[in-house]
Amino acid sequence: MRIPQDARFRAERAQFVLRFCCETCGGFDPERAACAYGYPVAEHRLARYRDPDAELVFCKDYDAV
Ligand code: SF4
After folding, report:
1. How confident is the model at residue 41, as a pLDDT?
2. Ligand 1 centroid, distance to 50 Cα (angstroms)
3. Residues with Cβ < 8 Å from 1, sequence gap 6 or more?
4. Cα–Cα distance between 28 and 10 in angstroms, integer?
5. Which of 61, 63, 65 to mutate to test the pocket of ligand 1 (most atoms within 8 A of CB)?
6. 37 vs 6, 12, 17, 50, CA distance in Å?
7. Which atom of ligand 1 lies closest to the CA of 61?
8. Quick one: which of 52, 31, 56, 26 has its CA closest to 44?
């Protein structure tokens, strides 16, 4: 799912401590910096969202740990 990132999302992300990036997903292998399921991770990594204008790309297989 791709959606534009806006100020409301950024505020609510901080307020509710929303986790949606690979670094907090059970499928992420930090030693390889890769997805254990073989998905591309570039658009789901936390660093991507340092850019406040980065389009939001949610992974459908995100598995909270
Ligand atoms: S399942 Fe999705 S969110 Fe989880 S590590 Fe793989 S690509 Fe990242």
Report:
1. 97
2. 18
3. 56, 57, 58, 60
4. 23
5. 61
6. 30, 29, 25, 25
7. 1
8. 56
Length of the chain: 65
Angle at alpha carbon of residue 51, lines to 49 and 56, rounded to 5° = 50
pLDDT along the chain (65 residues), means of 10: 90 95 96 97 95 92 86
The encoded tokens of residue 60 equal: 């459908």
Q: Look up residue 10 and give its two tokens.
A: 């950024």
What pLDDT sits at residue 36? 96
Please say whether the beta carbons of 39 and 45 come within 8 A: no
Rounded Cα gap, residues 7 and 59, in angstroms: 21
The domain ranges of the chain are 2-57
